[in-house]
Amino acid sequence: MTSPVSPSKPTSAATGLTLSKRLKNLWNLTTLGYGLIGFWAIVGAIVTAVETPLFQSLELQTRSTFFKFRGPVTPPSEIVILKMDSDSFTEGAENSRIPKPIASLKNIEQWPWRRAAYAEAIEKLMAAGAKVVAVDVLFTTPSIYGPEDDQRLREVLQRYQGRVILAAQHVASATVAGLEQGIESPEALFPDIPLTLGLINFPLQADNKLHRLADRHQLELLRPLKLDQAISSFYTATLKASGVPFVPPQDRSIFFYGPENTFNSLSFWNILVPTNWKIYAPGFKDKIVLIGPTAKELQDFQTTPFDSMSGIAIHANALATLLENRAIADFPATPIQRGFLTFCLVIGTGIVLSRTSKRSVRGFLWAVGIALAWGVFSYGNFAYGRLFLPTAVPMMTILLGGVSYLTTGAIAGQLEQLRLRRTLERYVAAPIVHEILIKHSDDFQNLLKGRKIKAAIMFCDIRAFTTLSYQLDPEDLVEQLNAYFNAMVEPILETGGTLDKFIGDAVMAEFGSPISQGPQVDAMNAIHAALGMRKALHELRKQWRQEGKVLFFNGIGLNYGELIAGDIGSYRRREFAVIGDAVNVASRVEGMTKNFWTDILITESLFDLVQDQVDVNYVGEHSLKGREEKVKLYVLMGLKGEDRTLYQQVCSDLRKYLGATDGKPNK
Fold it and tell me: By CB distance 3.0 to 4.6 Å, which of 116, 125, 134, 492 could disulfide with 497?
């Protein structure tokens, strides 16, 4: 075994660089996966910190989802809505058609209602003990029913001044001179009465829904007008007039208690009918009463987290929010802090993925789990802590990070599997490659780690190769060696063996590594491989005789025992290999074949596993170089019951060949 020729196994620097490049590509893909997670973390942080319309819309939609998932909450009993609803319009219209109409209902027989209807309602509510009455109707022009109608309302407002809140509205219109802004209010209609006004404007958010308390928005609207006296929001003015202590409104969101009709309410017409009023009057004692339109015909509706809601119901929710101090705050407080939170969440997910799973699918599931966990955590803070954390954008960026991890991991996995397949198919039979890649793909890294196994080891060496290397031209030698190696490798792979390496003109193989099929099967696979190699070389010699080429003979040593298998080598080059005493014994036994003028020797440890299936010739116990303990050896003639003609022919040819070289059975 002195030739440096290794024609099949990739040992060149170029091959090492190719493998290094593949590994580098895989490393780059892994790095790209984590890099994309970092990219999504930065994108999410920027979108959150800058509060882009996309971010606001997504987060507000999430907030609406949280409201609906939470469902209705019992509102404070202090608030009652007197509804200007469809029933009231119907009762008013029907009153005009009956023989004996109810006098007070005449005030609501047609739209707009008479101011006297509101005056009567306010009087009755105050008499019933209501704390305050807020009317969400704009009285900006004289009544179409004449001055007496306005006078009726004026008298009531004067009598209960400070306890009746009337609606005012900020308006803006485009003119040739620019944007013209102003306030529509009842002050021009009732200039001689100190009125308590409340602005009914609410800001629409990025999702075209009402979410926030209006106080800060209204302050910004009024600032350019430079009014002599500030006007509070409709609900704040109402709460102030009631005398109930409350936390001053901030730039927070409304705590919506539920959809339309969540609050205690009564149709307006009932208050005008004496018999009905006697029933309902006690329920208004110490109440804050809001009067406003709820009929669809009046089109006073806005979209909220609970879908379409009347303006008066929105005011009721805002008022109740302040009354019970339930305003919802964004957390963290500033956009920059919220952006940093999003960044930390996504980066934290990347760290979790890097430490919990190397498999892309499992990593993606981890990302999905983290995103869902954050959604649940955010909902808990919303429902029980009245804090709204960035939710939609962090969840989306976490999921996008997971998708990036899954995609790059899947590509890296495919490349790794392709690399392994191409590498393994050089040394391992196709069925074994399939089993490793399909059945043991998750544990392949464990297969590469150092571990103790039991396997059959084969060494095969060309007889008198040193002499042959001097007789043949290098080109002819390499060509003939390649043909020889091809003939020897096929039986090894066909029987499930693993081609370990070429060592000069020698071949080393294992049966049972990296995947064992059981001791008996592994041992018999080694026997079948050796017999197949005997037959293949015999057929090759026939061909070479006809071509006038030099003939090759070989020796094969088989042993079974314990090995240490693993990925062995340097940083620049590693390979799966086996080491141990059993390997050394197989190598020494191969060298002893020349002493018995035969081509295949097996040890006792292997023979014990296959003795019922093979014909052998026991040649005694022998000492091996570097080993004190003797080993029992057997010449393998063939399988039980098979013809021995091939064995006898090979032995005869080998004797003639060795005798022709130097007369002694040596190399």
Answer: 492
